[in-house]
Design goal:
Elements lengths: L1 H11 L12 H32 L11 H35 L6 H14 L15 H13 L1 H15 L8 H24 L1 H7 L3 H31 L5 H19 L2 H7 L13 H31 L42 H28 L1
Helix pairs in contact: 1-2, 2-3, 2-4, 3-4, 3-6, 3-7, 3-9, 4-6, 7-9, 7-10, 9-10, 9-11, 10-12
The protein binds copper (II) ion (CU).
């Protein structure tokens, strides 16, 4: 239902003049993620219903009389794409935050927007890489190794675009930008270990070890959760009308960055040495890295305290936020902080493609024009009411 809601809203309820290629990249990523959700979630629902029948009605879908590997296929047919349901909007946040704090338009806007669709389409044909060690025939392994490694192309386009956006620009390192840059750096580790795991010989070597756990967490925590934090700090002034405390935001970032790397990096050497996952104890030779990972885990837990305190206190008594504290170019920065009900006093007319203009100054000038237009309309209306 949520996916239907998002897709319908994006396709049918855009502001007048807001063509698809004028949409913010964040909206592109949400659209592709929710299309994935619509297409693939039924596979998991089906698997769950069949499993329920096996467990309660005595059917034989997945037990030894049926096909146990079929469950893995149905599960991963949804659950590989679902990683992109989380990752794509995270890439969208990077694509909003990085241009705003570089004071540069996003490099290659169209390529980045279309790369989201490329990732969505490709991610539909890679699920068997989770079954390389499940008795999968050789030809199938080779096919899915090839399709899995292809994902590096659209994700590479995005990383290139973010790098080109910050290239030679003056960086403003406020908290959202720190989280975005930190997330992109960690995505390199998550992505490159993904390329390694996509290769069948390597995957068979580290299958079911902590190397896989390390790879997964570099994506899901170190990349995606960092993007969520970047987005929360970036839109906090817009959502609440108040500024958060910058110093505490930076402390939150550095504790998180340090804690996350200490927690999840040791999993790579541990996995290569053969420490298996999903087992609560381990041989003494693995103790060194495990102590580091445990300390990192506690640090990561503690890192959340300044975040929670900052959010609560700033929401209650932070300084007032201006309409556009970051000099960002999205349409949301044209309205007040927090926005009125229905976001704008009058429906804005989008008559130029803001994201494709060459100079940030042009975009800001254009946005100021929208704001004064809306104010004029409001004043006219008030006058009309007074006259009436
Ligand atoms: Cu996968």
């Amino acid at each position: 239902m949520a996916a239907v809601n998002f897709v319908t809203t994006i396709l049918w309820l855009r502001a007048p003049g807001m063509s698809l290629f004028r949409m913010p990249v964040f909206v592109w990523t949400v659209l592709s993620a929710q299309l994935l959700q619509l297409v693939f979630l039924p596979s998991l629902t089906g698997a769950a219903i069949m499993l329920f029948c096996d467990l309660t009605l005595g059917t034989n879908f997945f037990n030894e009389q049926g096909d146990p590997v079929l469950y893995q296929h149905l599960f991963w047919f949804y659950s590989h794409p679902t990683v992109y349901v989380w990752a794509l909007p995270a890439f969208g946040v990077f694509s909003e935050v990085i241009p705003a704090f570089s004071r540069n338009p996003l490099f290659g806007y169209r390529s980045v927007a279309l790369a989201s669709f490329g990732i969505a389409v490709l991610s539909s044909f890679v699920w068997v890489h989770h079954l390389f060690a499940s008795g999968t025939p050789e030809w199938m392994r080779m096919l899915f190794m090839f399709s899995t490694e292809l994902i590096a192309v659209p994700t590479g386009i995005k990383v290139f675009a973010w790098t080109a956006t910050v290239w030679k620009s003056k960086l403003h390192l406020e908290t959202p930008m720190l989280f975005a840059l930190g997330g992109v750096v960690m995505f390199l580790f998550g992505g490159i270990t993904g390329v390694m795991l996509g290769a069948v010989p390597f995957d068979l070597h580290v299958n079911n070890t902590h190397f896989v756990v390390g790879h997964f967490h570099y994506l899901v925590f170190n990349t995606i959760t960092m993007a969520i934090f970047a987005g929360i700090y970036f839109w906090f002034p817009k959502m609440t009308g108040r500024m958060y405390a910058e110093g505490w935001g930076k402390i939150h970032f550095w504790l998180t960055f340090l804690g996350a790397n200490l927690t999840f990096f040791p999993m790579f050497p541990l996995g290569l040495q053969g420490m298996v996952r999903r087992v609560s104890s381990y041989a003494p030779e693995y103790a060194g890295w495990n102590v580091i990972a445990s300390l990192g885990g506690f640090l990561l837990g503690v890192s959340t305290l300044p975040f929670i305190a900052n959010m609560v206190v700033s929401w209650l008594q932070g300084s007032k936020a201006s309409d556009n504290p970051w000099h960002a170019t999205g349409l949301e920065w044209c309205t007040s902080s927090p926005p009125p009900q229905d976001n704008f006093e009058e429906t804005p007319q989008v008559d130029t493609p803001p994201l494709q203009l060459r100079h940030t100054q042009d975009v800001l000038a254009h946005n100021r024009a929208i704001v004064s237009f809306l104010k004029a309309v409001k004043t006219d209306r008030k006058n009309a009411i007074f006259r009436g």
